[in-house]
Amino acid sequence: LSSGEFKVIVWALVLLPTTFIRSLKGAAVMSLISFLGAVALSASILINCGGALLLNGLPPMEKINLWPVTEKDLLEQASVFLLLYSIQAGGGMILANLKDDTEAGMTKAVDV
Predict the structure, then answer these.
(1) 3-class SS at 52?
(2) Which of 3, 6, 1, 8 is closest to 78 using CA atoms?
(3) Are 35 and 83 in contact (CB under 8 A)?
């Protein structure tokens, strides 16, 4: 299994389903799945890039690209972009809907 195939599998199985949440009934479970996908993706990037850095050291500055140069580079980096977007877009929605608006909930929150 190559690194690119692994990224596509992680994206398809873990990150893509979070975009299909239509109600908040499964939001906590989908949030956990998305978090686990973020952990898996981060671990694979750290292992892949960290291993290359340990073996080869830092490349010269003129070989470092801050932006994708080709379409292939853009597609290879899309999984990281999608991960960051899914964390940014979904986190606020889930946290905003975890509040308890009932009288008992509000009393419990302010009763120290």
Answers:
(1) helix
(2) 8
(3) no
| Of residues 34, 52, 56, 41, the one with CA closest to residue 4 | 41
User: Cβ of 109: how many Cβ atoms within 10 Å?
Assistant: 10
Answer positive or negative: Cα dihedral of 52, 58, 61, 66. Answer: positive
Q: Which amino acid is at 46?
A: L
Q: What pLDDT, in 10s, does the model give residues 6-35? A: 888 877 776 666 555 555 566 667 677 777
Total residue count of the chain as it appears in this document? 112
H or E, element range at 111: none
Residue 107 one-letter amino acid: T
Asked whether the beta carbons of 36 and 13 are under 8 A apart, the reply is: no
pLDDT-derived band at 73, boundaries 50, 70, 90 = confident
Residue linked to tokens 């080869």: 56
Q: Which stretches does DSSP call E strand in 54-109?
A: none
